[in-house]
Every structure is written in C-alpha cells, then in structure tokens.
Write a structure and sequence with these properties.
Helices cover 26% and strands 19% of the residues. It is an alpha+beta fold. The protein folds into two domains: 255 residues, no CATH class; 120 residues, no CATH class. Strand 4 and strand 5 form a beta hairpin. The longest helix has 20 residues. Bound molecules: heme C (7 copies). The site of one heme C has 18 residues, from helix 2 and helix 6. The site of one heme C has 21 residues, from helix 3, helix 5, helix 6 and helix 8.
Length: 402
C-alpha cells in the first residue's frame, strides 16, 4: 500500500466525474429488450453443489470470490462501531458519518452540525468486498439499491468515504436546498451486482435499476463459472452411478478464449455493454457482451484489468497455452502464495538465471516480474489525503524498478 498526497482539485474532480459518468452510462445508455439468455430464474446456489463436491465447497467458501458480498452482520462488517472510532470524516468539518450498532442492526448516520442538528440514517444491509482491501455497504429502498457514503478501508483499518463522495460533498454544501438524504442517493446497478454477487432478478427492464430484493443472492456462486447446474444436479441425483459429469461446464474443456472470457467478465474492467448485465453464461465469448476501450487497457485498476495486462505479456502471446488457471486455482484461498506462483513460472522457464545465482530465486520470481504497483483509478479519500491500492502487474516482463 502506497500513499500519495492529494492531487490538485481538477484531477480529483475529473476522477469522480469519470466514475459517476461510467456508472450512469452503464446503467442507462445501452440495450433494451430481452437479453439473449438472461441469467435469471433456474440457477443453483453454491449450497446445492455441496452434497457431491464437499471438499471443493469447503475450500471455496473461504475465498474472496465467495465472500465478496454478504448480508451485513456483526461477523461480516469489518469496521469498528465503538465510540470515538466509529466515524468517517468528510472534507467539511461540520459533516461526518457515524456508524452505530443498535438492537435492530447496523446504521450509518449523517450528522451535520452547521446551524442545525439535522441527522439522516440508513441501515447497513449488504456488504460488498471480502475486506481484502476494502468494503462498501448497500441498503434497499423498495426495489432499488443504494450505496452508503461511508466505507471501510482495510490498509488503514479505518472508516473512510466511498470514492467520489469527497468531491460530491463539497458540491452538495453549495446547493441552495441541500438535504442530508441527497448524500444517500448513489444507485447500484446490475453490473455491480454481476461482478460482486451471484444473481438478482430485475423488475422490468434488465438494464434498469429495480430488482426483486428477495432474489438477491450474495457471493459469487459456483454457477457463475459452471453454468446454472440445475440439469446437472437432477441428472446425478437420478443416476448416482454415473461417473462422468453431465450437463455442466468444466472450464478446463473450453477453448482458451472461452476460459479467459469467464474471468474477463469481472477481471477486464467495466467495459461498454453490448448486452444487459447478468446475460453472460460460462462458455460465451466476452466479446459478444462487452467492448473494452484502449484507455481501460492501460490502467492498472482496482476493478480488475488483469486480462488485458496478461494479454500483452510475451508469456501469454508466445506460449499459446497460458490461461488464468495456469497459476490460479479459484477454489482455494491463495493469499500470500508467492512461492506457489513462482513454481508455475518454472513449468515453462527451467533455466532462468542459471548463470546468475542471485536472480535464480525460485520462490520469488513474481516479485520482480509481476511487481505490486499502484492502481491509479478510484483513489480513497482519508484525512485530507488520497490513498491508492496496489495490485500485481499481470504484464509479466522485465521491470526497470520493480
Ligand atoms: C447429486 C450429485 C451432484 C451434485 C449435487 C452436483 N454434482 Fe457436479 N458432478 C457430480 C458427479 C458424479 C460428477 C462426475 C465425477 C466428478 O468429476 O467429480 C460431477 C462433475 C462435475 C464437474 C466436472 C465435469 C466434467 O466435465 O469434468 C463440474 C464442473 C461439476 N460437477 C460442478 C458442479 C456444480 C457447480 C454443482 C452445483 C451447481 C454440482 N456439480 C452439483 C455430481 C454432482
Ligand atoms: C467489472 C467487474 C466489477 C464491477 C462492475 C465492480 N467491481 Fe468491485 N471489484 C471487482 C474486482 C475484480 C475486484 C477485486 C480487485 C482485483 O483483485 O482485481 C473488486 C474489488 C472491489 C472492492 C474491494 C474488495 C476487497 O475485498 O478488497 C470493493 C469494495 C468493490 N469492488 C466494490 C464495488 C462496487 C460497490 C461496485 C459497483 C458500484 C463495483 N465494485 C463494481 C470487479 C468489479
Ligand atoms: C471463479 C470461477 C469458479 C467458481 C466460482 C467455481 N469454479 Fe469450479 N472450476 C473453475 C475452473 C476454471 C475449473 C477448471 C480448472 C482447471 O483448468 O483445471 C473448475 C473445475 C471444477 C471441477 C472439475 C475439476 C476439479 O477441480 O475437480 C469441479 C467439480 C468444480 N470446479 C466444482 C465447483 C464447485 C462445486 C464450485 C462452488 C463450490 C465451484 N467449482 C466454483 C472455476 C470456478
Ligand atoms: C462474477 C465475477 C467474477 C468472475 C467470473 C471471476 N472473478 Fe475473480 N474476483 C472477483 C471479485 C469481485 C474479486 C474480489 C473479491 C473480494 O476480495 O472481495 C475477485 C478476486 C479474485 C482473485 C484474488 C484472490 C481472491 O480470492 O480474493 C483472483 C486470483 C481471481 N479473482 C481470479 C479469477 C479467475 C482466475 C477467474 C476465472 C476462472 C475469476 N477470478 C473469475 C470477481 C470475479
Ligand atoms: C503467471 C502466473 C499468473 C497468471 C497466468 C495469472 N495470474 Fe493472477 N496473480 C498472479 C500473482 C503472482 C499474483 C499476486 C499474488 C499475491 O500477491 O498474493 C496474482 C494476483 C491476482 C489477483 C489479485 C489482485 C492483484 O492483481 O494483485 C487477481 C484478481 C488475479 N491475479 C487475476 C488473474 C486473472 C483474471 C488471470 C487471467 C487473465 C490471471 N490472474 C493470470 C499470477 C498469475
Ligand atoms: C505457459 C508457459 C509460461 C509460463 C507459465 C510463464 N512463462 Fe514467461 N514466457 C513464456 C514464453 C513462451 C516467453 C517468450 C519466449 C522466452 O523468452 O522464453 C516468455 C517470456 C518471459 C519473459 C521475458 C519477457 C520479455 O518481455 O522479454 C519473462 C521475464 C518471463 N517470461 C517471466 C516469467 C515469470 C516470472 C513467470 C511466472 C510468473 C512466467 N514467465 C511464466 C512462457 C511462459
Ligand atoms: C531480483 C529480481 C529477479 C528475480 C527474483 C527473478 N528475476 Fe528474472 N529477470 C530479472 C531481470 C532484471 C531480468 C533482465 C536481465 C537479465 O536477463 O538478467 C530478468 C530476466 C528474466 C527472463 C528473460 C531473460 C531470460 O533469462 O530468458 C526470464 C524468462 C526470467 N527473468 C524468469 C525468471 C524466473 C522464472 C524467475 C524465478 C525463478 C526469475 N526470473 C527471478 C530479475 C529477476
């Protein structure tokens, strides 16, 4: 984690505008009518796979994928609710967000002390982010979902403002009829849910912002990478002696580009939509669903640009076989596994640095060739500073200053 002093206001405003504009573009600008095969209705929960795939299930439920959205409870919300440590400060000295635990659950209250004693409160209902780097929180208002302004920032172990709010709050203060509830109106759309949860059923238009709250399934489910699974389960329940899996996608038997597409759905950045959110099915080509801009491909992003970076590496281009699964086993929590990743390099690079023993460190190839670098999008605002997250650079190569 690296810290950087606040940039000039212009840059910060541009970044905030960019993120809001992207949000709105994605939600309103594209696609009407029914998706080719929307990810609705008949799909299985991860729990449904458990009886026959117990060991994969047991390790999978400990991963960031499974835990990337949860129902808000004492166990899942990471931040501190104790007095003195329970506030997210803002650029305005008279405005802050207080985190409160009351009998009915967790709440976030905007407290504005400039000439008033006004407050405004909404509950924490859904947590987004396993908390590896950060968590943000959502609440329902009828059939619409909104983001709470205060979020949790893991590297500093503190509450802070969700990206973009610091500039929005400064504009808000200038508004003639400002009300605190205006700070609680950032909508959450289907694309956010597509990347961070299993599924949800839209109310009306599949590109709209209305969902059936009861249909929201937290966590990335097995079905997200393996297909709905309903037929698979029915078949194996009826044919307990069958040894070969039927009616299910095994990514290992898809083409290389289909395999990468399954990860690209969430690890290639936002993209410009060609189909409504939640249309993608494992086995599809990502190019049928999204277009990725050049700008997006250049930026190391907190919302995952690993695909484009890997594409540009010689390992990917010249091996002809590398996929994400060459190094990652998504059924397992792989935090802090530098040595394990470096062993994967040696499946193709037996003789590297043989002549130079000080480089030939088999357990840390990735530290020099896939260094952690700062993601320049979505800075977090905290105590007057902008903070950036760091990510492994998937453009495997030779870095001057890793
Ligand atoms: C009633 C038992 C049962 C349930 C429930 C079940 N499976 Fe399977 N599955 C099997 C059997 C049997 C096989 C074949 C043996 C093996 O590969 O483990 C299999 C194989 C697989 C394969 C490999 C297929 C291949 O072509 O190699 C995948 C992937 C898979 N299952 C995923 C899932 C997912 C995801 C779920 C939940 C949606 C699920 N299974 C639920 C019984 C089941
Ligand atoms: C294109 C898919 C995509 C979209 C859309 C997306 N995210 Fe993410 N997000 C990711 C990925 C992937 C990561 C993990 C970063 C990485 O490792 O590449 C992530 C990381 C996060 C984290 C940090 C998680 C942690 O445990 O450290 C939070 C919080 C988050 N996203 C919130 C959101 C919210 C809220 C939205 C919608 C407004 C959203 N994201 C939209 C893919 C997406
Ligand atoms: C993020 C995507 C993703 C999720 C989520 C996921 N898998 Fe997989 N799964 C894969 C990939 C990729 C492979 C193929 C790995 C390879 O190339 O060997 C695979 C392979 C399998 C296989 C067959 C080979 C093996 O490893 O035994 C089974 C069975 C399986 N998954 C079951 C599950 C179950 C059950 C869940 C949920 C508890 C689940 N998967 C969640 C991506 C995923
Ligand atoms: C439905 C969206 C989605 C898909 C599909 C997906 N990922 Fe992710 N992935 C995420 C999100 C979101 C996170 C951040 C989870 C968190 O910590 O909150 C993540 C995190 C990760 C991480 C960091 C380690 C961890 O478990 O937190 C790895 C590695 C990863 N994904 C690899 C893959 C690979 C490889 C594939 C394809 C087989 C894949 N992902 C498919 C959304 C997705
Ligand atoms: C040559 C090996 C290799 C390949 C191939 C690979 N990764 Fe990684 N990946 C790594 C290493 C090393 C890390 C850093 C792990 C750490 O620091 O704990 C990493 C980390 C990640 C993370 C965590 C966030 C970050 O960037 O630090 C995500 C998400 C991820 N990879 C996704 C992918 C996806 C998606 C693909 C396929 C497009 C892929 N990876 C292909 C080696 C690889
Ligand atoms: C699937 C095989 C494969 C894997 C796995 C693999 N590479 Fe490569 N890599 C290649 C090929 C092929 C080339 C291009 C020809 C060459 O230099 O051997 C290459 C090139 C390179 C280069 C030269 C890059 C340049 O821009 O000149 C470096 C450095 C490198 N690999 C490091 C790594 C590291 C570190 C890992 C593990 C994180 C790794 N590779 C994993 C196949 C692979
Ligand atoms: C301390 C940093 C460092 C470590 C650790 C390291 N490398 Fe390198 N590597 C370099 C540098 C610098 C170069 C370019 C200069 C050179 O070729 O000696 C390079 C060049 C390479 C190349 C391209 C030239 C060639 O020799 O073919 C490959 C492939 C490679 N490294 C693979 C690996 C693998 C695999 C590992 C782990 C066993 C590894 N490196 C560990 C710094 C490192």
């Amino acid at each position: 984690m690296k810290r950087v002093k606040a940039w000039g206001l212009t840059v910060a405003v541009a970044a905030a505008l960019g993120s809001f504009a992207l949000l709105y573009f994605n939600y309103f600008a594209n696609g009407t009518g029914d998706p080719p095969h929307a990810f609705r209705g008949a799909t299985s929960t991860s729990e449904a796979c458990r009886p026959c795939h117990q060991s994969i299930y047991d390790s999978y439920v400990k991963t960031g994928h499974y835990l990337t959205s949860t129902v808000a409870t004492k166990a899942t919300v990471m931040g501190d609710f104790s007095a003195g440590r329970n506030v997210a400060r803002t650029p305005l000295p008279d405005l802050q967000f207080a985190m409160e635990e009351r009998r009915g659950g967790f709440f976030q209250t905007a407290v504005y002390t400039k000439d008033t004693t006004e407050t405004f409160t909404k509950p924490f209902q859904i947590v987004v982010g396993s908390g590896e780097r950060a968590q943000t929180y959502l609440f329902w208002e009828g059939d619409r979902l909104f983001q709470l302004p205060g979020m949790y920032f893991t590297p500093e172990e503190t509450w802070t403002l969700a990206p973009g709010y610091e500039t929005w709050i400064v504009w808000w203060e200038e508004l003639p009829n400002k009300r605190l509830e205006m700070l609680y109106q950032r909508p959450i759309g289907g694309r956010c849910i597509e990347c961070h949860a299993a599924t949800v059923l839209p109310v009306g238009s599949p590109t709209g912002l209305r969902f059936h709250p009861d249909s929201f399934e937290v966590g990335i489910s097995c079905a997200k990478c393996h297909g709905p699974g309903v037929q698979h389960i029915a078949f194996h329940e009826q044919n307990p002696a069958a040894e070969e899996g039927r009616h299910i996608v095994n990514p290992a038997s898809l083409s290389r580009s289909q395999q990468i597409s399954s990860c690209a759905l969430c690890h290639a950045g936002q993209g410009v939509p060609k189909t409504p959110p939640l249309s993608f099915r494992p086995g599809d080509e990502i190019s049928a669903h999204r277009i990725y801009t050049k700008a997006e491909q250049k930026q190391l992003s907190v919302h995952g640009g690993q695909v484009q970076f890997l594409w540009e590496s010689r390992c990917f281009a010249e091996s002809g076989s590398m996929t994400c699964s060459t190094c990652h086993n998504v059924h397992e929590d792989e935090t802090d596994q530098t040595a394990m990743f470096s062993r994967q390099c040696l499946t193709c690079h037996e003789q590297s640095h043989a002549e130079e023993p000080k480089l030939a460190q088999g357990d840390r190839c990735t530290e020099c060739h896939m260094p952690d670098q700062q993601a320049s999008n979505l800075p977090m605002y905290h105590e007057g500073e902008e903070l950036f997250l760091s990510m492994a650079n998937h453009r495997i190569g030779i870095f001057k200053d890793p």
